[in-house]
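Team,

Forwarding the record for the chain on the shared tracking sheet. I've put the sequence and predicted structure together so nobody has to dig through attachments.
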Amino acid sequence: MITVAIVEDNRLVREGITDMLNELPDVEVVLAASGLETARLKAAQARVVLLDIGLPDANCLRLAESMQKEAAKSHIIVMDLLPAHEEIAQFVNAGVAGFILKDATFEDFVGTIRSVAQGERVLPPRMTSTLFSQIAEAAVRERGEAALEEVRMTRREREVIALIAEGMSNKEIAQRLTIATDTVKSHVRNVMDKLALHTRLQIAAYAHGLGE
């Protein structure tokens, strides 16, 4: 069962999301709050936290950082109409696992929750190029393109990087390369270690930054 906590100040939206998610056989809403009630959020120990970053008078970024340190088993999904790419980068760096646009379909909404609950990182396609561009440019500025190119990757690791850059999940990569999903996960961990990266989004940004 995927336990979910919702932080949304609009009562109609909050109750609507709660009702729809509770109708699913594999999802249970364990907390629905109108504000950043940090203690209740951490006590709920939900696997997925849906966080509206448009909350008035609230520092959602600080909450995300705090949750990652004190409630590491909770995966945060940020909800907004269309956050600025600067905000996206900040939340990615804070460890947020995914983003949901409020005009997404219910199928996409639920798909994001399920993917994040399984440890995936999810970004809506229309945000992707902006985020990739920014992170890639920052990586090149901070570490230098030559430093990135000098990192030695196996042929299989480069294949995995390229497929992540296409937006594929571990399962899809495993099917494309005809290998086990656990093997893909191992390659992803190796890539992150070699590049000193922390998320699949940053791996994809690395690939885009080098023109792969």
